[in-house]
Amino acid sequence: MATFIDIDDPADPRLADYVNLRDVNLRKSLEAEHGLFIAEGAKVIRRACGAGYPPRSFLLAPRWIDGLRDLFDGLDVEVFVVSEALAEQVTGFHVHRGALASMCRQARWSAADLMATRRLVVCEDIVDHTNVGAIIRCAAGIGWDGVLLAPRAADPLYRRAIKTSMGTVFQLPWARLENWSRGLDELRDHGFTVAAMALSDESVTLDDLSADLRRNPRKVALLMGTEGAGLSAHWISQADVVVRIPMAGGVDSLNVAAAAAVACHELRETSPTGLSLSQ
């Protein structure tokens, strides 16, 4: 049975998992050291638990307890009950969704697992957690098989990435490439056509690549670059094809998450009848 514990001291050491959730550098070291991540909001907590991630503890304002009580059945876990004011003191922000859970991290997939699939988004050094979460959400929703992350890309299990993804980080397979410089060679060795999203004189339009894939179906790895500079020159030079989204109105590009959504939809794998194979 879950143990409910009322806490009224923000310095209580039992709340250590929840300290300063907005301090990215502190959270990186704390979460890596203790093998945890934070799920925020009842819906995300349910999805994390439903995906099989074991909870370490819960931090709840009293009004959220009844709505999550069924999750506690059979769990040997501590539920810290705090006021919303105290939760804000501990976490460093107003927990407007009212519920937090500290969950155990688990390595679910490897890069090798993902390379056995057919449609992958590959993120190079995308450091904004909300963009990583949004890319994972759109890849999951459009039916792609997974997301690969370069070593310096943001953590999909950071609180903001999880929240933006609406918990699809627990659903869609994702993993990190161990070798940034040779990762694209590995993709090609596994039969992928490597398509780099970039503005280039040699680029083809997304429409052209989509038409080519309909004529000659094959595996695709879609490379997305960092928010400012885009993809590195090294990755662009290593790609099989450079592709751009046709733009209008004097706009040269989209936000990386929006661009990923457009490209994932256009390059999704379809059957000869035009229906998505994921449907």
Description of the structure:
By secondary structure, the protein is an alpha/beta fold. The chain has two domains: 103 residues, Ribosomal protein L30/S12 (60s Ribosomal Protein L30, Chain: A); 157 residues, SPOUT methyltransferase, trefoil knot domain (Alpha/beta knot, 3-Layer(aba) Sandwich). It has eleven helices and twelve strands. The strands form two sheets. Strands 8-7-6-11-9-12-10 form a seven-stranded parallel β-sheet, sandwiched between helices. A five-stranded mixed β-sheet has the order 1-4-3-5-2. Strand 6, helix 6 and strand 7 form a beta-alpha-beta unit. Helix 6 packs parallel to helix 7 and helix 6 packs parallel to helix 11.
Give me the secondary-structure topology:
Layout: E1 3-6, H1 24-34, E2 36-40, H2 42-50, E3 55-60, H3 65-72, E4 78-81, H4 84-91, E5 99-104, H5 111-115, E6 119-123, H6 129-142, E7 146-149, H7 159-165, E8 174-176, H8 183-189, E9 192-197, E10 204-205, H9 206-215, E11 219-224, H10 233-238, E12 241-244, H11 256-266
Parallel strand pairs: 1-4, 3-4, 6-7, 6-11, 7-8, 9-11, 9-12, 10-12
Antiparallel strand pairs: 2-5, 3-5
